[in-house]
Amino acid sequence: xxxxxxxxxxxxxxxxxxxxFLAEHAPDVLCLQETKTDPSAFPHDELAAAGYVAADHxxxxxxxxxxxxxxxxxxxDATSGLPGEPVEDxxxxxxATVGGTLRVAxxxxxxxxxxxSEWYAxxxxxxxxxxxxxxxxxxxxxxxxxPLVVAGDMNxxxxxxxxxxxxxxxxxxxxxxxxxxxxxxxxxAGLLDAYxxxxxxxxxYTWWDYRQGHFHRGLGMRIDLTxxxxxxxxxxxxxxxxxxxxxxxxxxxxxxxxxEWA
Length: 262
Hints:
Pfam families: Exo_endo_phos. 24% of the residues lie in helices and 27% in strands. The protein is an alpha+beta fold. It has one domain (2-261): Deoxyribonuclease I, Chain A (4-Layer Sandwich), CATH 3.60.10. Helix 3 (118-138) packs parallel to helix 4. The mean pLDDT is 96.
């Protein structure tokens, strides 16, 4: 199984790159964030022509998430929105069952903007809702929950290893201890950070600012994560960052993060 998460920062602008990626890497599942499309404009037809189906939660110009899967696997039992999220109309969470055996959620966590702001408080509340939902999904009534993946743009670098210079991120969002603690609570609800399972000490960034040549200077952050349930973590064979998709024509500021398991 090959699962990818990618914040495309506008699916309309990035659709040729997405279709290129599907043709080149043939993932079984692709979690998208910041699709920024109206529900009626989501490119179901283009994806179908490439051999994929999607469960999307589209909200217009901002946010938007989707779980895309091979047509033969299908997506079922799709639900949009995260129970308990502080702002319900921002299209930040969608989940679906892929192939009848894997529960997948694509998430775009709020940015938080500034410490001590209302947006920062909403970000922490969103993480709290995530942790509760993960707990529900892992605490299945009959004791046999489906394997679970929660993948997307978490807008938090989990540790100092995940930013190019910790000193440059003092007193700002994305690295504050309350955010990191809130993210750890999601993980502690029953998941593992797939990248760190296979690369415990390796620097690997998934986002670079468009400005000042940050990508070429190596000034990045690891804020896109694939969180997997323990039974999947034991079967991981590869977790890789596709840096080449930050190059070329009209790149997103994020790159695809690929996880594979036997």
